[in-house]
Design brief:
Number of strands: 27
Biased composition (Low complexity): 44-57
Protein name: Dipeptidylpeptidase IV N-terminal domain-containing protein
Structural class: mainly beta
Shape: globular
Largest sheet: 4 strands, antiparallel
Radius of gyration: 20 Å
Strand content: 35-45%
Region (Disordered): 37-57
Order of helices and strands: EHEEEEEEEEEEEEEEEEEEEEEEEEEE
């Protein structure tokens, strides 16, 4: 199966278009599903009365590209417990494997219109696998069970959904691909993936197997649809971005909800109306999230700033306001040893 010709529209670097990929991939000379849906009914749990749960202290390593921390481009690793930071790469966003031992980068080259996808060892920075994909490959998600597999999303522009593709970088081939126009996808810790349609149908798939197993239905509040999903490291719960859009296509509300893997016991985790991304702590106790006033855009553009917060995963209706005390901001040390608040974006959270 050959590559499909893409359109040539491009956005900003943070919103670069991806392009439709079909097996086999085209590699640089230097480089070494269907089915599913339906199922049982989920339920939206009411918010508890009284004070919320206390917030556990964060641990582990925080992968970020918060330029303001040290005025450095690229990815750094901050310690959640006050240790010194570590520079990872000066150019690319580095997305780590769950154990933090290696990371993947995806760098699009405007001149060649190709994306260089590389897997690096964290300790040394050495390239372990490298391949080039025609056009743009975005938002890579490393497979928790395989050090050479990456799930990514590819499309022909920022306004089209395209497909999800699972790539074996060692074998240099596409293992699976399926449409992304109506679903969000993430890995489960055992190597399967969870597939959630925009209307809340949840199924579980296996790479290379067309049919998925329907496991449940998320009961969505009126007017909201599923835009993104993140499975917890234990494979028991989901964090989901639910949003609504205006008739003009701008985002009105964007917040995180949490549910069991089958969609049951769902509750609204954040009540900021401006939260777009989530990262689970390695032990699944906490969820890090952004509050991005720049995500609410109109025809005049996007303005504002982004803050990074964390709260207990069991917390509900989190407003992330200092006076509320229902969430906290990460305090880490920069390269000069000064304590600073860590800002957006959080690329990964590893032990």
């Amino acid at each position: 199966m050959g590559l499909l010709p893409p359109s040539r529209s491009r956005g900003s670097r943070r919103c670069w278009a991806a392009v439709l990929v079909a097996a086999p991939l085209v590699w640089l000379a230097a480089c070494g599903g269907g089915g599913g849906g339906g199922g049982g009914g989920g339920s939206v749990a009411p918010a508890p009365s009284g004070p919320g749960p206390s917030i556990a202290a964060p641990t582990g390593r925080l992968w970020h590209h918060n330029y303001a921390l040290d005025f450095l481009d690229g990815t750094q690793i901050a310690s959640a417990t006050g240790g010194p930071p570590m520079a990872v790469t000066p150019e690319a966003e580095a997305i780590p494997w769950p154990d933090g031992s290696q990371y993947v980068t995806a760098e699009w080259d405007l001149r060649t219109d190709r994306t260089a996808v590389r897997v690096h060892a964290t300790a040394s920075g050495a390239v372990l696998h490298e391949a080039a994909v025609d056009q743009y490959f975005r938002a890579p998600r490393p497979a928790p069970h395989r050090k050479e597999w990456v799930l990514g999303r590819v499309s022909d522009s920022v306004t089209t959904a395209g497909v999800y593709a699972v790539i074996d970088l060692a074998a240099r081939r596409v293992l699976d691909q399926f449409p992304a126009d109506d679903a969000a996808v993430d890995w489960l810790p055992d190597g399967r993936y969870v597939h959630v349609t925009h209307d809340g149908r949840i199924s579980i798939g296996t790479v290379g197997v067309a049919a998925r197993q329907a496991v449940g239905q998320l009961a969505l509040p009126r007017g909201l649809t599923v835009n993104e999903v993140w499975a917890d490291p234990q494979g028991r719960r989901l964090a989901l971005r639910l949003w609504s859009k205006s008739e003009a296509g701008t985002i009105d509300v964007s917040d995180l909800w949490v549910s069991d893997l089958d969609g049951r016991n769902a509750y609204r985790h954040t009540q900021t109306r401006m939260t777009n991304r989530a990262r689970w702590s390695p032990d699944g106790r906490l969820i890090a999230f952004d509050v991005d006033t720049g995500s609410l855009c109109d025809f005049s553009g996007c303005v504002g700033h982004c803050e990074l917060w964390y709260a207990d995963a069991d917390a509900r209706e989190v407003t992330a306001l200092p006076a509320a005390g229902d969430a906290r901001q990460f305090r880490v040390r920069n390269r000069s040893g000064q304590e600073r608040v860590l800002g957006c974006d959080l690329l990964g959270w590893t032990p």
